[in-house]
Design goal:
The complex is a heterodimer of chains A (about 425) and B (about 300). With about 425 residues, chain A is mostly beta strands. Chain A has one helix and 23 strands. Chain B has eight helices and 15 strands. In chain B, a hairpin with a 2-residue loop joins strand 1 and strand 2. The chains are: A mainly beta (about 425), B alpha+beta (about 300).
Chain lengths: ~425, ~300
């Protein structure tokens, strides 16, 4: 008996030492392609985004992942001025009458690196940590995150507590501008270097030295989440997240039309946003297996102290078609209500408000997505996916605040775009 | 590995048998799951078996084992798996008072267990004795010092280790459903079948290999057999000798059973106990009865 037991212990040591050996190398490569077009038939932004990630996985809860993302953005994006029945001249380009002015110099290339790992701490807990770095010609970002995951009740419940920090710097082409000053103002804007950050430009830039040239923004985030296995087929997830952003949050490229009593533009001024923002989200996810298929339902409520709030609903159904093929139709609806300081324009005769922005992304906006994904598992080592989505964004084309000529023009053309992603992933 | 294949067939609703050849044995993976998982796991098990075989075979010049045997008289750094295996071999040597000794590679090189090659001269074996004995090598953490003339052989441990390691990984990848890994009679039924019906295992009859001596009904557990009708040496007079060498003499153990089968929790424990029993010669039965395991002696 003694010998058998002692041998048993020795075998245990042998197997635990060698079990940790079997690491899989997983890879995932994809290319995303999308092109926006608005209801005025203007081409907007096009993005091509290849992504590659490599993961060294020792076990499901023990891996290291490195990811590289490259974004190539081209096209034109609204500069904040609203459409008008007259032609509008913005120095670098002219907008035709009746069309929303789009700044054509929206080209940029971005590279981002993410490093992510998950490691067990003991039988019921693990931690996840990540570092990321992103750079484009006018924007740099460095961020880190850490979460602790703890299992309870025979792994039926998992609690996640995490935090993240991000340090971003924007250094726009053309430099910073004082808010509410005319875009035609002669005074040369100062482009700050890494050593000096002027206080004259914009609101809330940091006075101290910064890591990168430009103005700084810092983000502090926390999340708490609970995941619960309800029964053999069903999983429920509830998360609460809060983030606090401090620093320069104005968009240095966006302006606002200043209109006269007739609704015609007489000037354009640079926008201004607060230098702090408190964001919160509550999200719940529900996944249930139905035979070999599964249903995913998500609901997310977002709100912040800028007055923006959003309800997002997302549903996906995973059809398993045999041992190789699967199809996942997808529908998503997102309904955003505008920031307190969002306005389509400023009135010439009225004093400047504390903050104002005409960026359509802060306005009332409804986004609807219809899409589907097809996946084909060639074998246990290789899988192909194709994802296609049609996204429509609508806003308030004829808001109450529109006056005079503004009422004859579309203040928020519908935006429609296709997004196509092809991917291959597997292990070797 | 171009011509090594595996296959997977349905044996009953929800019960699949994956099979392939490895370590000179027919290998079986029994799984209670769906076809896709069964095929995926059989492929993994086959590739893992071939990996272990390639790594520790003494018949392959490119194996990690052969490389260790070539670089004697110098400290060599071992990978995690090899370190764990050698540490385990050392534990077994201690626990069995030297009966299990992987340095018998030194003797093994002179024998051919093909049923007709004559045995090596006793003198040659006596000279080799200076180069056999676990206490003569040094293993410090993951560093090995193998003196010149010594050779390691993992033939007595490798197959059972593969069975257990593969069974444990399959159990972690398949959360439910019966699992049994059987490599030519060395097996681990790591999880019982869902309906609690036993795995039925036949113990090969040494004298008439086509028929079973006995069947073992196993809900969960492991079985290994030492001694075989297939591999044996013969002496000058054609008398059959076994293939399990006594580390003290280099000669197959005398007066022992033709085969010993042991049932325990892991294939490795079974293998160590059955080999130890064989090496006890005429005391095999006594030894086994003390171990409180189920066993069969032929």
């Amino acid at each position: 008996m003694q010998l058998k037991k002692k041998l048993g212990l020795a075998v245990c040591s042998l197997l635990t030492a060698t079990q940790s050996q079997a690491a899989d190398w997983l890879y995932d490569a994809s290319v995303l392609n999308y092109s926006e077009k608005d209801s005025q038939q203007q081409n907007r932004v096009s993005v091509v985004e290849p992504v590659l990630s490599i993961t060294k996985q020792n076990a499901v809860d023990d891996y290291v992942q490195f990811q590289v993302i490259y974004d190539s953005l081209t096209g034109a994006s609204p500069n904040g001025a609203n459409a008008s029945s007259v032609a509008q001249n913005f120095n670098r380009f002219i907008a035709r009458p009746g069309f929303t002015p789009l700044d054509p110099a929206f080209n940029d290339n971005r590279v981002a690196f993410n490093l992510n790992w998950l490691k067990p701490l003991d039988r019921t807990s693990r931690y996840q940590a990540g570092l990321s770095f992103s750079t484009e010609t006018d924007y740099k970002s460095v961020a880190g995150n850490l979460s602790l995951l703890e299992d309870f009740d025979h792994k039926r419940t998992t609690l996640t507590i995490g935090g993240a920090y991000s340090y971003d710097a924007v250094n726009p082409h053309g430099g910073f501008h004082d808010p509410f000053t005319s875009i035609y103002a002669v005074a040369t804007p100062v482009t700050p270097t890494a050593q000096t950050v002027t206080s004259a430009s914009g609101g809330g830039g940091n006075q101290e030295q910064s890591l990168f040239p430009g103005k700084i923004k810092q983000t502090f985030e926390g999340i708490v989440g609970i995941s619960r296995v309800l029964n053999r087929f069903t999983l429920l997830n509830v998360n609460y997240g809060i983030s606090y952003l401090t620093g320069y949050q104005t968009d240095p490229y966006k302006l606002i039309s200043v209109i006269d009593a007739g609704g015609f533009p007489v000037d354009y001024v640079w926008e201004k946003r607060p230098d702090t923002r408190l964001k919160q989200t509550v999200k719940t996810s529900f996944i249930t297996a139905i035979g070999k298929d599964s249903l995913h339902l998500d609901y997310r409520y977002y709100w912040d102290d800028w007055g923006v709030s959003t309800n997002t609903y997302d549903v996906k159904y995973h059809f398993s078609m045999g041992s190789h093929l699967y199809v996942v139709p997808h529908y998503r609806l997102s309904d955003q209500s505008k920031a307190d300081f969002f306005r389509i324009s400023l009135n010439q005769s009225q004093p400047d408000p504390a903050y104002a922005s005409a960026d359509y992304r802060l306005g009332d906006m409804k986004t609807t997505t219809y899409g589907g994904m097809i996946g084909y598992r060639w074998n246990s080592k290789l899988e192909f996916t194709a994802n296609i989505e049609q996204i429509t964004q609508t806003g308030n084309s004829y808001p109450v605040e529109a006056i005079g000529d503004q009422r004859n023009n579309d203040m928020f053309p519908d935006l429609k775009f296709w997004s196509l992603t092809f991917g291959v992933r597997g292990k070797w | 590995m171009a011509d090594r294949h595996w296959q997977c067939q349905k044996k009953a609703p929800g019960l699949w048998l994956g099979s392939f050849e490895a370590m000179k044995s027919p290998c079986e993976i029994w799984l209670e799951t769906d076809e896709r998982q069964a095929r995926e796991l059989t492929q993994w098990a086959a590739e893992e078996s071939w990996r272990i075989e390639k790594k520790y075979s003494r018949f392959r010049a490119d194996s990690v084992l052969s490389r260790l045997n070539r670089h004697t008289s110098q400290w060599q750094t071992l990978d995690i798996e090899t370190t764990a295996l050698l540490q385990f071999a050392g534990e077994c040597w201690t626990l069995t008072d030297g009966l299990i000794d992987i340095t018998i590679g030194g003797y093994m090189q002179f024998w051919r267990f093909d049923g007709h090659t004559p045995p090596p001269p006793r003198k040659q074996l006596k000279q080799q004795a200076a180069y056999v004995g676990w206490d003569k090598l040094q293993l410090k953490d993951n560093e090995l010092f193998l003196p010149a003339g010594m050779m390691l052989d993992l033939g007595g441990i490798g197959k059972e280790y593969a069975v257990d390691a593969i069974a444990v990984t399959l159990a972690s990848r398949l959360p439910r459903g019966g699992i049994m890994v059987n490599f030519g009679g060395d097996l681990c039924a790591i999880r019982a079948r869902s309906d609690q019906s036993p795995w039925i295992i036949g113990v090969e009859n040494i004298r008439s290999p086509q028929s079973s001596l006995q069947t073992i009904q196993l809900l969960q557990g492991a079985v290994a057999t030492s001694g075989s009708s297939k591999r044996y040496a013969v002496d000058k007079r054609g008398k059959v000798l076994g293939h399990i060498l006594n580390p003290k003499t280099g000669w197959p153990v005398a007066h022992g059973p033709a085969s010993v089968t042991v049932v325990a929790e892991t294939a490795t424990q079974c293998g160590m106990l059955s080999t130890s029993a064989m090496l006890k010669g005429k005391h095999a039965e006594a030894f086994l009865s003390e171990q409180q395991v189920q066993y069969f002696i032929q």
